[in-house]
Amino acid sequence: MNTTGSPFKQSMGPDNYGWNNLNSGSDGTVICEFCGSVWPERDGQSYTLLRFLGKQVVAECCGQALDVIYRESGEEFVRVWLEEFAQNPISPKFAIFLRGYLPDALKKARQSSLATAEQISEVQKLLPA
Ligand SMILES: [Zn+2]
């Protein structure tokens, strides 16, 4: 089914990243306003809902649209967002970033770089001097 004004004629497929800019879901009947899919009530297992271009999107059928946008423009979005952060770092908009995402990302980057250094060290031991 495709409702009038839906950007897609069919589902694009589920997302790979868990996008949920509404921080909500529903286990009741939901409609994806992107492809027109009507999802039946699902007892106890919530659908992930997004708001995209003013429309409700169900991640299970059209979340992949955001995956594509992320692949094509994610770095540009991050660059602009970090510029906004640099202009006003004490804005409440950045509180979760400063308290959670940034320290977590730096910790993971450190762990990844240490693991890579260990792998390089192991490979170097196998090479002739
Ligand atoms: Zn959809």
Describe the protein's architecture and organization.
It is a single chain. This protein is 47% helix and 12% strand. By secondary structure, the protein is an alpha+beta fold. It has one domain. The protein has a 3-stranded antiparallel beta sheet with strand order 1-4-5. It is extended. The termini are far apart. Bound molecules: zinc ion (ZN).
- Categorize the overall geometry: extended
Poorly predicted sequence stretches spanning 5 or more consecutive residues:
none
Widest sheet, order of strands: 1-4-5
The main β sheet shows up as: 3 strands, antiparallel
Number of helices: 3
Record keyword descriptors for this entry.
129 residues, alpha+beta, 3-stranded antiparallel sheet, two-stranded antiparallel sheet, 3 helices, 5 strands, 12% strand, binds zinc ion
Secondary structure layout:
Layout: E1 25-26, E2 30-31, E3 38-39, E4 47-52, E5 55-58, H1 59-62, H2 64-87, H3 95-126
Antiparallel strand pairs: 1-4, 2-3, 4-5
The structure holds zinc ion.
Zinc ion (ZN) binds at residues 11, 32, 34-35, 37, 58, 61-62.
Describe what is shown at a glance.
With 129 residues, this protein is of the alpha+beta class. The protein is built from three helices and five strands; from the N terminus they run βββββααα. The site of zinc ion has 8 residues, from α1.
